[in-house]
Each structure stands twice: as C-alpha cells, then as structure tokens.
Design goal:
Layout: E1 20-25, H1 34-45, E2 49-52, H2 57-60, H3 70-81, E3 85-89, H4 97-102, H5 129-146, E4 152-156, H6 171-184, H7 188-195, H8 222-248, E5 255-256, E6 258-259, H9 268-272, E7 279-281, H10 291-305, E8 311-315, H11 334-344, E9 347-352, H12 379-392, E10 405-408, H13 411-419, H14 430-441, E11 446-449, E12 460-463, H15 471-482, E13 486-490, H16 512-515, E14 517-523, E15 552-553, E16 555-557, H17 562-570, E17 579-580, E18 583-588, E19 593-598, E20 607-614, E21 617-622, E22 625-626, H18 628-641, E23 653-658, E24 661-666, E25 672-681, E26 686-694, E27 698-703
Parallel strand pairs: 1-2, 1-9, 2-3, 3-4, 4-5, 6-7, 7-8, 8-9, 10-11, 10-12, 12-13, 13-21
Antiparallel strand pairs: 14-18, 15-17, 16-19, 17-22, 19-20, 20-21, 23-24, 24-27, 25-26, 25-27
Helix pairs in contact: 5-8, 8-13, 10-14, 11-12, 14-18, 17-18
This protein binds alpha-D-galactopyranose.
Length: 708
C-alpha cells in the first residue's frame, strides 16, 4: 500500500522548517545511564535529529523471532521529550550471528568462491530470499511499533548498500542472475548476441547454462560482467524495496537509505527514484588541498540525483576517520566551513558519524561529535558553534541552487567501461571529478545530468569520457547544442554503443553532427618506464624508440586561435596545456576548427582539440586528457561563447547562491576582502554594505533584504 508522504514531514511538528543537525546515535554500545548525559549534550549542541539503531539488529532480535524493543522505546521517548527527531534505521546492515549460523546461504560468496563470515558487518547475500524475509520482518516490526511515533521523522533503511559487499557469487545469486537475464533477453540468442559469445566459444544453448562471472582463467566476458554489475545494483535495490514496502504498510514517514558519493557499483540515478530524500555519506581527505572541491562535487551530485531537490548529508566526520593509513585531523574551522558549503550546494541536513566516539570496536579512533575527551575536546566548541549556525539558516530549507554548467554522468557507461578490456585504463570517476573541479575553481555550481535528465537550458554541458553512448543521448546532446548549449566532449567517448558493441566507422561518430569528428584510432603514450636497455651493449634495442616515453602528450595550440587568445587572458606567461593518457587520430569534417594539434611523435600535426559551431551552440572535442590549464582554457572558451560571466572573487573564496542566500566561503589560509557585498549576514546578524572581510577558513551567509 502506498500512502502520500512528504519530505516536509521531516521538519518539526507544525511544519516549521529545520536544517537538521545530528549524528548516528548508537546507545546500544553504552550503559543506560549515558542517555541523560547524551541528551543534555545534544541540546547544548543544537542537535535536532539523530539516526538510531543502524547496527542494532543483534540487540533488537537477539534470537530468531524474539524482539526486545524496550530499550529502543526508552531512547526514542527520551529523544522525543527533548524535541530531537529520530531517523530510525531498520537495523539490517549487520545481521546477528544466529542468522548466518542457521542459514549460511545468507552469507555472501566472493568471486573466488570464499563464503564470508560473521564478525564484521554487511555479511549479506543480496539475493538470499531468507535474508530478504528476515530483514523485511524486522523492518515491519519496527514500523508497526514506531511508524506513527511523532519523534520518527525519517526511515533509514539498512546502511550504505553495497559498501563492503556489492556482489555475491553464490548459487542463489547465480539462479537470480539467470532469472534477471531471462527478463532482459527474450531468447538465449539475444543474450549470445549481446555478450558476443561467438568469441572464444562462449556460446550458450540455454539460460540454464549461464553462471555468474566467477573466477575465470583469463578475461571474463565483458557483456556478462556489465550485466552482472547491473544485476547486482538491482539486487541491492530489491533488498531496499522489500524493506521499504514493509515499512509503508505501517508508516507514512519518508524513507531513505544513505548513498556514498558516486560509488561505482550502485546505480544511484536509478535508486534516487525510490528514496524520499537523497542522502549521502562523505569523507574528503582532510589534508588534501582538494577537500573543498570534493565536498562541492559530491554535494552537486546528490542535489542532481534528485533533480535539484535538497539532499541530506547523512554522514561526515567532525575531524579524523580511522580507516585511512594516516588519519589526519581537520584544521580548526574546516568542519564548520565544509558543512556550510554542503548547505550552500543544497543540503538540508548536516549529520555526522557518529554522536559519541566508541571506546571499543573497529571505529574506536574515528572522531565523533562527543570525543573521548568529551566537552574538553577542541572539537566541542566547533560542534556547538555549527549547531548555532545551522539554526540561523533554517529559512534556507527547501530552496534551490541554480546551475548554468552541467556535467554528464551515466552509470551504465561506467558499468561498460569497468567491464570492457579497453584500450586504456579505467580511471573510474577521475575525469568527472577533474572537470567538475575545473568548473568549481572557476566559480560555477554544477548540475550533474544523466541520460534521462532534461538537458535544455544549460549554457555549458561537459561530457567527460562517456565510453558507451546511446544514439538517444547523442541526439539529446546535439539538440541541446542546436538550442544554444556549448558542449565539451572528451576522449574516449562513444567507443561502444549502449549495448556494449564497438562502434565501426569511427568512434564518436554518433556525435558527428555536433562535433564534426570521428575517432579512427586510439593511441596511448607508452608512459614513463624504467630504463630497459644499456646503449653500450644493447646495440639493436638501444636504437628503437617507442612513441611517447612519458605519460604526457604534447600539444601545440594554433597561434592566434580563440584558444590561444583565451590562454593569454588566463595568465602571463601564457600556460601551455598538456595532455596525457589518450591521443586519438581524428578524421574531421570540413567546417571543424582545429584549436590545437598534437606535437609529439607519430601524431605530430594531427588535431588534438577541435571546435565546431552547431546551431546556436557548438561542440568542442578534446582528443586527450587535458591538464588543469587545458581544461580551464576550454571552459573559458565555452563560457565566452555561451555569454556566461562568473563572479570575480579573491583567491580561496567560493560563492554559491541558494534561493535568496549567498554563501561566501573562504577556504583559504588568508583573510579575504570582498567588495560589493550587500545583505544581512545571517550567521552574525550583522548588515553588510559593500566591504566584507572573511577570516581564513570561515563563511558568511548573506540574505537579500527587501528594502536593499
Ligand atoms: C560509513 C558507515 C558508518 C561508519 C563510517 C566511518 O560511512 O556508514 O557506519 O563506519 O563509514 O567513517
């Protein structure tokens, strides 16, 4: 039964909007007495919501069918009395020992055939009907008991689906995979065609012969791999949906599960249709210079998964994690600053892992809102300060971020790319992140768009490494250009069609109306290698020079071209862009402008960067992986053609507009002076009339004033 529900109901009773602040709260790790102290501290910190019972299955159902909810009753009541909302978990991410002992088939099997055991977490075969039955039963019992409790404002199904175990290779999974394939392909001939099983005698006579892509002597079949990726994402989704359905029988409260940025194994675009609010867990490396960029990327992605709706940051950390080799702390101010940055990019909740730092177990040294040293910790004042800041920002809730620049992402293409024995390495999301970073550094919030998104209205769309491309998406990109969008496409794109078949007659040819290019061959530089020969004695080999002795690909910008002029405007002396990894042989149509050529080895003189006007817009192609200067130059060129004008800001400062609020975020290590800023700084209550100084690692949030 589906009942109407609204994300607004996660706000406090009476519909007052709340920008939620809180954490995973795991009282099962603590004696009962700590509850009162925790609640007092939560009130001091301005906590408005906590995620409860995420790993509590063993406490809630200590033996098969015996439920012990009394402690959870007490916790939920106490939180409710304190005015703290509950994001109630279904507790199914870590099954109790008895389940695996009674039903070993609920435990997952690795590609090598090893069955994983109890003693960590997520030891789950997603296809196991027994697991689905038991997890749905627990979800149902929880929903029956708490589904209408006024404290419960959100349901948190399981936790980080696919983290640790994204695929299972057991017999149950194999049978489920065969059923999934029967749905996808009407006949075994269709499957044989899609997987190209004429190759290496891989042909199947019936679906019964097909298995999971378990350990094989050599390369597995790429079609089988890509389908197994899709199947595995679908099986995890089916687990989520089984619990969601069980909850909906008893509760109208919004339901979600937490995502992990652009986690490759799970097609979040597909999943986003099934969550009432998109939520994310995000842990940028604190000592990286790119942490703010990373926070912007994942936040833009989360907002975009829900087509612009606000998302919840479900987990981050106040300071250090415990799972890197070196676990550095966040510098003072960074926890607050990056939390406000998430709000700027569309977050309506800032939640942490976790409330109170554990004293035993694998996460003992993971930071928390309340650390081992309690209120004396240097984190505590920042925790309290952020609570005040978020309370001051409650009017931001629900408002939208407008983006002129979009970045195209497609999980299905990623599945193909990861499965293909490709011409070069699969670098995962590296190109997406790099291009997002280019837009971020230039001051643009970015919408991530997907093959099913509405592409109309964007001034610039960047398409990095879209390895497998459907005819429909190619047509949509071309239409967008005709309507005025500047489209930037980078190698390798359109190498396969969306069924995984290699394109003949020139890769990317489905975009030839937009780009006017076809890719005849891929070439990769040999990459830096250790010296292999001694010229004093290796008298033959020492005279042989493989092309491209480093990872770099030389590029020569055409003098006087639009690109050349753009580079001149970027810096003095003018940057000389370099490529790497890819170098492609391009065939061009007559009206294509060459912006730069390759300068090294056999490809010297071949086009490397091209532009073609297309309707009211245009298409730029990069036949190599450009460095930061090259990407920045192409974006600026597109920006000028699209008549976009990013804000002029001091170094280190990011400005994001969300609804009627302007977030000014100084990520830098120096105070930043801004001029021309007008509005009420809602964090301090002071009026800004032009000049504004932002101390290092700090933010201001200006609200437009009616009479301003
Ligand atoms: C994930 C999990 C949490 C916790 C944190 C630690 O995000 O969901 O339970 O393990 O990592 O960083």
């Amino acid at each position: 039964m589906t009942r109407p529900h609204s994300i607004l109901s996660t706000s406090t009773p009476g519909g007052v909007p709340v920008l939620h602040y809180g954490a995973d709260y795991n009282p099962e790790q603590w004696p009962d007495e700590i509850l009162a102290e925790d609640i007092a501290l939560m009130r001091e910190a301005g906590v408005t919501m906590v995620s409860v019972a995420i790993f509590a299955w063993a406490e809630l159902e200590p033996r098969d069918g015996e439920f012990t909810f009394e402690r959870l009753d007490t916790v939920i009541e106490a939180l409710h009395e304190a005015g703290i909302a509950v994001d109630l978990a279904t507790a199914t991410a870590s099954p109790p020992a008895w389940l695996g002992l009674a039903y070993p088939e609920t435990l997952p099997v690795t590609r090598e055939g090893v069955r994983l055991g109890h003693g960590s977490r997520q030891h789950i075969c997603p296809s196991s009907p027994v697991f689905r039955r038991y997890s749905a039963r627990l979800a149902s019992r929880l929903a029956e008991r708490y589904g209408t409790h006024p404290a419960v404002r959100l349901w948190h199904v399981s936790n980080e689906y696919g983290n640790h175990v994204a695929r299972c290779y057991c017999e149950t999974s194999a049978a489920a995979f065969r059923d999934w394939l029967r749905e996808r392909y009407a006949t075994i001939e269709e499957l044989n065609e899609a997987w190209g099983t004429a190759f290496w005698s891989q042909r199947y006579d019936s679906f019964d012969e097909v298995g999971v892509p378990a350990a094989t002597p050599s390369f597995p079949n790429p079609g089988q791999e890509a389908d197994f990726s899709r199947f595995s994402s679908d099986e995890l989704l089916a687990c989520y949906l089984a619990e969601k359905e069980a909850i909906r029988e008893h509760s109208n409260v919004p339901i979600t599960t937490n995502f992990m940025a652009d986690f490759p194994p799970v097609n979040y675009r597909e999943w986003a249709r099934h969550v009432d609010v998109v939520t994310d867990d995000s842990y940028p490396e604190p000592v990286s210079q790119l942490a703010a960029r990373e926070a912007a990327y994942v936040s833009d992605l989360m907002r975009s998964l829900g087509d612009g709706r606000p998302f919840y940051l479900m987990e981050q950390t106040t300071s250090a994690v415990q799972w890197r080799e070196r676990n550095s702390r966040k510098r003072p101010g960074v926890f607050t600053l990056q939390s406000l940055q998430r709000v700027a990019h569309g977050a309506d909740a800032i939640m942490q892992f976790q409330w109170r730092q554990s004293v035993r177990g694998a996460e003992t040294f993971h930071s928390a809102m309340v650390s081992h040293s309690g209120r004396e910790s240097t984190i505590w004042p920042e925790v309290v300060g952020l609570g005040h800041d978020l309370a001051a920002l409650s009017d931001v809730v629900g408002s939208r971020v407008h983006a002129d620049v979009a970045l195209l992402m497609d999980w299905d293409s990623r599945f193909h790319r990861a499965s293909a024995i490709g011409p070069g390495p699969d670098r995962g999301d590296a190109a997406l992140r790099a291009w997002h970073g280019t837009a971020f550094e230039r001051g643009y919030p970015v919408d991530v768009v997907f093959p099913d998104s509405d592409l109309r209205g964007y001034r610039v769309i960047i398409v990095p490494e879209l390895f497998a491309l459907s005819a429909d998406l190619a047509a949509a990109l071309t239409d967008a250009a005709h309507a005025g969008t500047q489209v930037i496409v980078t190698a390798p794109t359109g190498v396969l069609d969306d069924t995984g078949r290699a394109i003949e007659g020139g890769y990317a040819s489905m975009l030839s109306d937009l780009l006017g290019i076809r890719v005849l061959e891929h070439r990769l530089p040999a990459g830096a290698r250790p010296r292999e020969v001694d010229p004093r004695v290796d008298t033959i080999s020492a005279h042989i020079h493989p092309a491209g002795a480093t990872d770099e690909v030389g590029i020569e910008v055409v003098p006087g071209s639009a690109l050349d002029r753009t580079l001149e405007r970027i810096a003095h002396p003018k940057p000389a862009p370099r490529g790497s990894l890819w170098a492609e042989e391009l065939a061009l149509e007559d009206d294509v402008e060459v912006l730069a050529t390759f300068s090294d080895d056999d490809l010297a003189g071949w086009p490397a960067l091209t532009y073609r006007p297309c309707g009211a817009g245009g298409g730029t192609y990069a036949a190599t992986d450009l460095d930061a200067a090259g990407r920045a130059a192409l974006l600026r060129l597109a920006e000028a053609r699209a008549r976009l004008c990013p804000p002029e800001l001091p170094g280190g400062v990011e400005s994001v507009r969300r609804g009627e609020f302007t977030f000014l975020l100084n990520h830098g290590e120096r105070a930043a002076e801004l001029s021309g800023q007008v509005g009420l700084n809602v964090l301090t209550g002071t009026r800004v009339t032009g000049h504004l100084v932002l101390p290092p690692r700090s933010a201001a949030v200006l609200r437009e004033e009616e009479d301003a």
